[in-house]
Amino acid sequence: MTKMPEIDRDKCDGCGLCIEVCSCHVLVLVDNVVEVKERIGCQQCSKWCTMCEMVCPVGAIQCPFDVITEE
User: Domains in the chain, ordered, with CATH?
Assistant: First the structure.
């Protein structure tokens, strides 16, 4: 199973920026806090874009993997 972003509920301010950039649509707001909903077999999630982590202004999202690019 693909690892999903980890959300620190105490840090999340519910701004929704991560939801806007998530091309796989795996993030939702629940009680004004972002949560990851399970998306079994989502091929886009296996790309591990980390956009949600990059746009979070409060550092509430951590992606449990590193993206390595080759030149």
Answer: 6-62 (3.30.70.20)
Contact indicator for 14, 4 with CB cutoff of 8 Å? no
pTM: 0.76
Nearest to 23 by CA among 2, 3, 1, 52: 52
Mapped onto helix, strand or coil, the DSSP state of residue 22 is coil
CA distance 46 to 16: 22
pLDDT at 43: 47
Q: What is the pLDDT of residues 1-31, one digit of tens each?
A: 556 788 999 999 999 999 999 888 888 999 9
d(CA 7, CA 35): 7
